[in-house]
Amino acid sequence: MAKKKELTVEERLRALYDLQLIDSRVDEIRNVRGELPLEVRDLEDEVEGFKLRLQKLEESLTDIDNQIKAKKNLIEEAKVLIKKYNEQQKNVRNNREFNSLAKEVEFQELEIQLAEKHINEFKAQIEQKKEVIEGTKERLKEREDHLKHKKGDLDAILAETEKEEKVLLEKSEEYKTKIEERLAKAYTKIRTNVKNGLAVVPIERGASGGSYFTIPPQVQVEITSRKKIITDEHSGRILVDAELAEEQKVKMEKLFSTM
Length: 259
Prior knowledge:
The chain has helices at residues 9-33, 36-89, 95-176, 181-193, 217-225, 242-257; strands spanning 200-204, 207-208, 230-231, 238-240. It contains 6 helices and 4 strands, in the order ααααββαββα.
């Protein structure tokens, strides 16, 4: 098996900066999408929440309807018993039997009154729940419309950027293989820890890109010589000279324009 050619320091620096430009391009694409994916997920959760609430409200209406039916059945049963006891009173042999049946009739009449009271309370609950259901349906529709709008925005952005992002991510992995694993891991770690994901930056006006800390002239000379990989002592970023950075930008812009 052919041994992988060892890159010079300059070739490593160029590969690192190319990798940075690719990953920064991915960051730009994701920034364009911004908070939209999160907004869509939140709206989807909200819509599901309203749907679940509606389901529970509808189930509670069904439960109340069943309770009303049970009370109406109880009333009908009580009426049958009252009729039965009234008939039995016609054939009693003494006052004790008559009074006992009268108490049974009175009890069933009280049962009917209580059942009717409960039915009225249940009907009031139904009206209240129907109002809540209507309000929930209105809010659900408003959230669904908003979700549809946001999804449309997200889909449009994804249609424009998803293909390019996929290619860029593949390129990022490809370019990582051009440098040794140790250096690739160091790059990834720096990129994770620094602002804007910039792990490799050029010198700008005597300071590392995006920094106000001046780099000593001797260090600047070393960076320009491209003989070793140098990091910024303040931010930990890998430093490249402006000329190398500009050359790689031109090269990578040509690559991006073909995607």
